[in-house]
Amino acid sequence: MASRTGSRPSGSDGSDFDHRERVADHYKISAVLKPKMKICMLLNLVVAVKIAALDGALHMDLLPPPIDTIKIQPWHYIIICSFLSSIVGLSSLSKSNGALLNVYKTGTLLFCLGGTVFGMITHYKELQMYLQTGKGLLIFGLPAIVLQYVGLSIYLVFTLLNYRYASKLSAAWHMKTKRK
Fold it and tell me: Using one digit for the tens of pLDDT, what is the confidence trace for 25-52?
């Protein structure tokens, strides 16, 4: 035992720590991935709220002229549903609940990835038409369809990264329950 006031026991040079327990790997992985997952889930919430706000503003005709020609798309509703899976995912982090994290993973695949791919497929002909003719809706001097594809591509990469983190965290939590 260490003594705060006294000297070290005789014969101990401080190298007698090899017998001490180490932190298990699944706890280390969990400690590293939980903050990353929380950031990813919060960013996903921000994206869902932003799309919901855009759709609400479009529905109430609150946007200025270049943007008001954009229409509410069905894939917007799918991505907005990812809000629910992010809430479930955030609640899974506090108690390391693997079942809720698996619900979040499924929701990420269905709503985030599904909505993104559906959006890309829906607007593919419009992108192809713009690339062939060079004509299309401009927002602030930039082609709207290209901006939309750039945004969807970034969201796709973000969703895949988010799913990877969730899978690693789920595997670490599964290791923990397997060892008990």
Answer: 888 888 899 999 999 999 999 999 999 9
Task: Name the 3-class secondary structure at 17.
Answer: coil
Alpha carbon 144 to chain centroid, angstroms: 25
Distance of CA 13 to the CA centre of its chain: 48
**Closest C-alpha to 40, from 146, 149, 169, 150:** 169
Would you call 172 exposed, middle or buried from its count of C-beta atoms within 10 A (0-12, 13-18, 19+)?
Answer: buried
Name the E strands within the chain: 138-139, 142-143
Parts of the chain with a pLDDT under 70: 1-20, 66-69, 176-180
Chain-centroid distance of CA 141 in Å reads: 30
CA angle 79, 44, 126 (to 5 degrees): 40
Per-residue pLDDT tens over the stretch 110-133? 999 999 999 999 999 999 999 999
